[in-house]
Specification:
The chain is α+β, with helices and mostly antiparallel strands. The protein is built from seven helices and seven strands. The structure holds flavin-adenine dinucleotide. Flavin-adenine dinucleotide binds next to helix 3.
Length: 254
């Protein structure tokens, strides 16, 4: 994965006053992007791609890359906004999870935490929260004393990492065209539907952001949200087939 971020001046009516646009990569369109309102009336705009399709860091190339995103909003935003910095590139060769919890022994007096255990594609925005959850796990383990600390901590850290790892790596794996086991397929299917419904259901959009950034971990799979996603995707497919029927009626009458 390669990405580049650039700061722009933000006007209050940009994007109709919205604070965030998040375009996730899919197998059909592996370019991703996020425009995030920041302090000091600024936008941080990130463009990302996979397998060598990386955003250029010159002005024209950066905009041309944004033009091929599946939604026009971010391209329109950066075409009209004043840049405050150059694009800054970053590349991640691979997601990495070192399974310390599987070691039979670990040196006493040492521990590993945060990115040193697990580092993700940053576009999913989960690294800091995952590191913080590991710090909480360490606090709880230390409260029970130091005996067998490494083994207890690595087991808890692996639990904290499990969900964000499955979400991010599950999506990245299908971008590569890899064959996935059934549970990951199901999770990816659900996440696709959730993102589609989130485009017009604010409650689902908030749950998607809260869940993906791990601020509200349970929100993604909460039964109420799952029901909204199922109802919303049924509505999407029935309105798509009605539009298809209307189009073919127009075609046959013309
Ligand atoms: C470009 C980019 C964008 C990201 N965006 C997001 C995001 O939007 N949301 C999110 O949640 N996460 C994001 N992440 C991930 C997040 O930054 C990391 O997951 C998080 O910082 C990990 O915390 P850490 O303490 O494990 O490691 P770090 O924050 O990397 O801290 C390690 C520290 O150790 C120091 N250090 C290294 N070697 C030595 C040494 N030998 N001696 C002394 N000190 C040393 C380093 O200087 C550094 O200060 C992003 C990461 C990158 C690279």
């Amino acid at each position: 994965m390669g990405y580049a971020s650039r700061l722009y001046a933000r006007k209050p009516d940009d994007l109709g006053g919205d604070l965030l646009i998040n375009v996730s990569p899919t197998p059909q369109n592996r370019r991703a992007s996020a425009a995030l309102a920041q302090e000091g009336d600024r936008w941080r705009v990130t463009l990302a791609g996979y397998f060598g399709d990386y955003p250029p860091v010159d002005d024209e190339g950066f905009r041309a890359f944004a033009r091929k995103l599946p939604t026009p909003d971010i391209h329109a935003l950066i075409t009209n906004a004043t840049p405050l910095s150059d694009p800054v590139p970053y590349k991640l060769p691979a997601n990495q999870h070192r399974r310390y919890e599987r070691l039979a022994e670990f040196p006493a007096g040492l521990l590993v935490l945060g990115d040193a255990i697990c580092s993700f594609t940053p576009i999913y925005g989960q690294g800091m929260s995952t590191a913080a959850m590991q710090a909480q796990a360490l606090q709880a383990c230390l409260a029970q004393g130091q005996i067998d600390l490494a083994r207890r901590f690595f087991r808890e850290a692996a639990t904290a990492i499990g969900n964000p790892w499955n979400l991010t790596v599950g999506n990245d794996q299908r971008l590569s065209g890899a064959a996935l086991p059934a549970p990951k397929h199901l999770l990816n299917w659900y996440m696709d539907k959730l993102q589609i419904v989130a485009r017009r259901d604010p409650e689902v959009a908030l749950a998607a952001e809260g869940g993906q950034s791990l601020c509200r971990r349970a929100s993604l799979l909460h039964p109420h949200i799952a029901l909204c996603v199922l109802k919303g995707s049924l509505w999407e497919s029935s309105s798509a087939s009605m539009q298809g029927a209307a189009l073919s009626t127009q075609e046959s009458s013309s």
